[in-house]
């Protein structure tokens, strides 16, 4: 099967981040792309729909009207079940149906591909790689899990772009196991931490990712589990000189919203926060240096790096409270996000909305341990009830259970069941200056929520 054999492609659930990225890419290489989504309503404005249509992608209500006998491929996300009417119609018309990850794998086979894997930092590192390659004149393409600010400024969704060059940057997702479908020229493994699966299962998945990489495999020597999959230390990176690696970061400093560090003696300055972003930048530098881009050129490019959507995105400052919105949703990401905000203000109030009852139950102890370890005595952690996207989940756990565990460890931990009550509950806890950090994923209402919080401050 080859992506070139399909011309009229329809996406069910096209507004999803992963789906819209592939849809835009395929439209950009000359395919006739259309799609539907349950969030498209009659006579109701939808920003994603408008941006897709601006790119030439026709958008339909999820009623089957967009699928015809001329459609030669239907793409579905993992969230789309066989009982959906449009899936039934595609089957009746004998139209091939592929999962999002299967289509991405076909696209990856058609290009020289850099696949970015790991349980944290994939979107950020993919964006850094893309920006450096663009700066170096390589004209890459990207299919990402988040919008790049540099592309959003062009009026686009920001999670995909078609370049004239040979290289394509993609995120390789381990959460659904689809990472094993890719056979990239360059495979990058950022880290391995407990997230959607047990460690043994993750090691097996990432081991297959390594074995499927055609040319160069790059790992993070600073991550205990990732380093176990290394193939060549000269290709690897590390944030500590005690680890043998071809690219080593040191001398990390954070001043407010700027970080500085050195890579093999070259100073890098970036307008972002957190040691984890030094790690992400090291990974990006290691990748592009294998393509012939000097560390000096990478440093120049990263000085202009603008970040990605909902990754430590500054919403604004009001009455001494700086509001930051972040996509952090697993234990390691939440801890890193809180830590990155600590140099900015003497007090950080972090709010987190877990998603899914199963994942929250699976990661309960890890969330408690990771968050407890990073909180300073003056910092606070707040949680609202678990985001439930539907399905047959057993609702036998509450975010308040995690808060109770944190309280037992002596942490300043609070539960506010309805997130709309958050600001009123917080007012007496603000001191000047304070960082209010909002964390959560999967819930499409979080973008609006961050704006509503800011208006209430």
Structural notes for this entry:
This protein is α/β, with parallel strands linked by helices. It folds into 3 domains: 3-99, Rossmann fold (3-Layer(aba) Sandwich), CATH 3.40.50.720; 111-302, Mur-like, catalytic domain (UDP-N-acetylmuramoyl-L-alanine:D-glutamate ligase, 3-Layer(aba) Sandwich), CATH 3.40.1190.10; 313-456, Mur ligase, C-terminal domain (Protein-Tyrosine Phosphatase, Chain A). It is built from 14 helices and 21 strands. The chain has helices at residues 17-28, 47-54, 85-92, 100-109, 122-135, 149-152, 199-212, 275-289, 295-302, 331-341, 357-374, 399-408, 422-426, 446-456; strands at residues 8-12, 32-36, 58-60, 73-76, 97-99, 112-117, 141-143, 160-161, 167-171, 186-189, 216-219, 237-238, 247-255, 258-263, 266-270, 313-318, 321-326, 348-353, 380-383, 413-415, 434-440. The strands form 4 sheets. Strands 8-7-9-6-10-11 form a 6-stranded mixed β-sheet, sandwiched between helices. Strands 16-17-21-18-19-20 form a 6-stranded mixed β-sheet, sandwiched between helices. A hairpin with a 2-residue loop joins strand 14 (258-263) and strand 15. Helix 5 packs across helix 8 (275-289) and helix 5 packs across helix 9. The longest helix has 18 residues, at 357-374. It is globular and about 65 Å long. The mean pLDDT is 93.
